[in-house]
Design a protein that fits this description.
The complex is a heterodimer of chains A (289) and B (266).
Chain A lengths: L5 H39 L5 H5 L2 E2 L4 E2 L2 H32 L4 H15 L2 H15 L6 H25 L3 H9 L4 H30 L2 H4 L21 H10 L7 H31 L3
Helix pairs in contact in A: 1-11, 3-6, 3-8, 3-10, 4-6, 5-6, 6-8, 7-8, 8-11, 10-11
Chain B lengths: L3 H8 L6 E12 L2 E12 L3 E5 L6 H8 L9 E9 L2 E2 L6 H6 L1 E4 L10 H11 L5 H14 L3 H4 L12 H13 L5 E5 L7 H14 L4 E6 L2 H7 L2 E6 L2 E7 H5 L6 H7 L5
Parallel strand pairs in B: 3-8, 3-9, 6-7, 7-8
Antiparallel strand pairs in B: 1-2, 1-4, 4-5, 9-10
The chains are: A mainly alpha (289), B alpha/beta (266).
Chain lengths: 289, 266
């Protein structure tokens, strides 16, 4: 009754072929990830110790720890977030909930997408011109963080806007029909349901910010500093730049050290990403419609 | 000392007072007309049915009454709608207007809040903060929407997780929590089983003594069961308005009305 016809067999063969092809592609995709992580853990793993994480570099950075760079990256990320999250979330709420659908809104949206496509070295030069020179912040944590903030603004705006737009229109209309103002509707119905996506965007931004090198090189990150930064107008070391320095600029560097720095940096990013995934899963479990 | 106007108003039986006066109302979306030059009156404490096939302009009419054109730049409304004798296009406080008008949509919209918060939302928007007062409002509205017995033990669970029929009754409870003077139902029974539909219909018959109801429906028999008077919309025009039974058995001003209610088209 259900004997396979020739056409059935042909379709089945095709289906299996396509599945193998797509699966193979996926395998190739994850290969670099495994290789990178594997190499870093194999070569850099032995470096990781309490001292490595929490001591200052010594002997022309060929020994000691990476604490100033680690602290610097954390500081840069925090200041950048303080600037970009309020700005980005506010702009996204305006664009998604208030702005009329006309040419100027579309132009702004296009500009934001283009901002995301600007190479980081261009952001770096903009940061030098705007924050270091024009606003006279000098090469400092503040100037570097603001440069990073501008560079990552599109990530926050786009993530926020998309999560706002994922909230069904019917919810807003139901609220408006009850006599709620736009803001009451956003406050009570739209934002609580979009907060997951917004947080995901913010955490992705953190991981991007932590890894960038070019934008901070000219604006606030230093090659080597004997002292920890005392405020936002001081320069700082940063993990990403430190990695660049120890792997290319210092002769006589023990081979394992750059791998150790890279491992710390990538662990930070992966930790942030898994935090984002975990948070999203937790919040999605609570949200249902 | 009673002014002449007040005397006239109070001498009129409440039943015949006009709740909503519509004159020459046209609604356009861009260049496309949804409703063209309709006029009729809806009286206080009546159930006013609006029947007609898809694309007749029924939903657009409800949107215009609630001034939802404010949120849609593409929608333009011309003509006059008077609510309690006031031209709604001149109302400054549209939020106050919308609070007096409850709307129920074709598909239930349980907001992703708890059952309690769904019903307490409108009073809260209006500034009600007292928990005890809110408790009373929530219970009364859920009772009236014939939902209380089913949800009284799980007021904290999500409203959007209720079944379709329950969500629709939740939506009705939410509309009632506004203490509206006018309740507009847009094909409320689409997603509701027949038993629940009959229960809601009974609720509407009771509510009629307190508020005015506009019932947009695809089911001509539902209009016949409930509506005191009914309008027949077709492709943006209002072909007939009158006592509901007349549409079925009396004289109609357009032969297409009789064709429609007897199921010969649409």
């Amino acid at each position: 009754m259900f004997e396979a016809t020739r056409l059935n067999k042909k379709n089945l063969a095709k289906q299996n072929g396509v599945r193998l092809l797509l699966g193979g592609m996926t395998g190739i995709l994850i290969l670099p990830v495994i290789l990178i992580l594997g190499t870093l853990i194999y070569k850099g793993g032995p470096m990781i110790s309490f001292e490595f994480l929490f001591a200052t570099p010594t002997n022309g950075m060929t020994a000691g720890g990476i604490f100033p760079a680690l602290l610097g990256t954390v500081l840069l990320v925090i200041v950048a977030l303080l600037a970009s999250v309020p700005l980005g979330v506010a702009a996204a709420i305006y664009l998604s909930e208030y702005a009329p659908d006309n040419w100027s809104t579309r132009a702004i949206n296009l500009a934001i997408i283009n901002l995301a496509g600007v190479p980081s070295i261009v952001h770096a030069l903009f940061g030098v011109g705007a924050f270091v020179i024009f606003f006279k912040f000098g090469t400092s944590i503040l100037a570097a963080s603001l440069t990073l903030a501008i560079m990552t603004l599109p990530v926050v705006i786009v993530a926020t806007r998309e999560s706002l737009q994922a909230v069904p229109m019917a919810f807003r209309e139901a609220c408006w029909n009850m006599g709620a103002t736009r803001w009451q509707t956003i406050r009570r119905v739209v934002l609580p349901n979009a907060v997951t996506g917004i947080l995901t965007g913010v955490i992705l931004e953190v991981s991007r910010t932590a890894g960038e090198t070019a934008p901070i090189m000219f604006t606030g990150a230093a090659f080597f500093l004997p002292l920890l930064p005392q405020g936002v107008f001081d320069q700082t070391m940063a993990l990403s730049l430190h990695l660049f320095v120890v792997s290319t600029q210092v002769p006589g560097m023990p081979e394992a050290l750059p791998y150790g720095v890279a491992l710390v940096l990538i662990s930070m990013v992966l930790l942030m990403n898994s935090l984002s995934i975990g948070l999203r899963m937790y919040l999605r479990g609570k949200k249902k419609w | 000392m009673v002014s002449a106007r007040q005397a006239v108003a109070s001498s009129q039986p409440a039943k015949d007072r006009i709740k909503l006066g519509v004159r020459d109302l046209s609604i356009h979306y861009g260049s496309e007309a949804a409703l063209e030059g309709v006029s009729f009156e809806i009286r206080e404490h009546e159930i006013f049915g609006i029947i007609g096939p898809a694309n007749a302009g029924k939903t657009s009419f409800l949107k215009a009454v609630n001034r939802m054109d404010m949120f849609n730049t593409n929608m333009s409304v011309k003509g006059e709608i008077k609510f309690n004798g006031l031209d709604i296009s001149k109302v400054r406080n549209v939020y106050g207007l919308r609070r007096r008008i409850g709307v129920v949509f074709p598909l239930p919209v349980g907001l992703p809040l708890s059952v309690y918060d769904n019903v307490a939302l409108a009073p809260r928007l209006a500034g009600q903060k007292n928990r005890a007062d809110l408790d009373v409002i929530v219970e009364r509205c859920l009772q009236r929407a014939a939902l209380w017995d089913e949800v009284k033990d799980r007021l904290d669970s999500l409203g959007s997780m209720l079944s379709g029929g329950q969500q629709q009754r939740l939506t009705i409870a939410r509309a009632l929590s506004q203490e509206p003077e006018l309740l507009m139902l847009d094909e409320f029974s689409i997603a509701v089983d027949p038993v629940t539909t009959m229960r809601i219909e009974d609720v509407l018959k009771e509510l009629k003594s307190e508020i005015t109801i506009i019932l947009v429906t695809n089911l001509v028999q539902q209009a016949r069961r409930l509506a005191d008077r009914t309008a027949f919309f077709l492709e943006g025009e209002c072909l007939d308005v009158g006592v509901t039974e007349d549409l079925f058995t009396g004289e109609v001003s357009d032969p297409r009305t009789r064709d429609y209610v007897e199921g010969r088209f649409g």
